[in-house]
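check this one:
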Amino acid sequence: MRRLFTASGGFVMVLLVVALAGWWNPWNLVRLRQIGEWALWLLPLGVGLLLLRRARWRLLLAVVVLGAAGVAWLFDEPGKRTVVGSSTDGRYQIVVVKSGDGLGERQEVKVVRPAGWDTRESQRPLLCARAEFNDAPPMQYAAMAFTGPYEVELTLTDGARHRIGFDPRTAEPKLTLDVWCHLKGAGVRSLA
């Protein structure tokens, strides 16, 4: 019993560290963020193993949590991240990330520097467009292309073109276009 308690405590600590590292993620590593999200799914299992005394309840908890994580993994849309363009030298990609936020679908256009496990992604998007209550945003991206080594041109559905530069080291854009995402801060331009 004592060994199980110690192992469960260690498991919870490792999950907490991984989840915090994925949330903090100063290196903008895509894989670390994804692993951190899965650590949050497994955290209730570790806490339950610490708190529950009977083996039967521990087994039931393990089945429920792992089953829920498995179902979430199965229904995780592979189309959530779509590469829509690459720089001429292949060092950078433009990626569209789709996610639900409870009120509708959110679509972010980001710059990614692909490198396997060392893949880095900008924290702020070039463009964020959000559908509210299933109403399509007034404008979305229509086309994207690299116009220079560190510059992307976004063409929106209303025909407007925006050239946005980005930092080659961090892939952070110099400007973020906001369509119903309600982003705040310097370098954010609201379009709707």
In short: The chain has two domains: 2-74, 78-190. The helical segments are 2-24, 30-51, 55-74.
